[in-house]
């Protein structure tokens, strides 16, 4: 089946973290240098194909492997290519709170509309440390979206803790990546003003139906129009459209929650004719059964006209 181009709705400037914000993969040249021209073209292409904005320097963008100069230039490139800085939500994660705040200040200076922030990830921080960390970065002046990824950070932003961070005035939304869709309802009860953003592609439908107002997304890097159709149907409660499409895409979407997600999404991009390409070490290209599984799922989606 094919999907007509769905124009992005007018972005509400007061809450630019709403909608589909694509965690962008970063094109690299053969020598593993950043290809900024290809990145700029990719950002513009995503927005032209139904996405609302981009999230540079997330884990999908391999920010941990970038130099400070590269990381800053990626943000500037995204803002320029998006044509509207409010559509850009840079990841500002860092080992130290002061460094994370500096990245948030750089994002503000570049003209971005919001930032995405992990909890402290240098150690297993307690609640007081987490609250101080978010308060420090919020002082940079941009709206902060918390990123709950207890699998990788070992710090769990529980619904109770998220409610405290919201009451502190430190966060406006949460990218929920725990995989526990039951939390959506508890977050809404404890912090009704906190925006819920879908944080993992393979729980999109469940969190959309639970009231999510945005999706920090991986697979639109390869298949933006199909993903935009899926997201807009899901948040509208149009199950007749959303459920068959979700089932068709789920064998791909679940790679967003696996260890090899960067390589998987870049491989899918290559197959879809996008600038995916290599990853920087210590990530290596997919091989064997893993590569075959991603390739088969991507080719199946493309053969069904999903793009």
Automatic annotation (TrEMBL):
Keywords: Lyase
Family the UniProt entry places it in: Belongs to the DapA family.
Pfam families (UniProt xref): DHDPS (PF00701)
Signal sequence annotation: none
Native source species: Streptomyces cirratus
Family annotation (Gene3D superfamilies): Aldolase class I (3.20.20.70)
CDD domains listed in its UniProt record: DHDPS-like (cd00408)
Name under which the protein is recorded: Dihydrodipicolinate synthase family protein
PANTHER family: DIHYDRODIPICOLINATE SYNTHASE (PTHR12128:SF72)
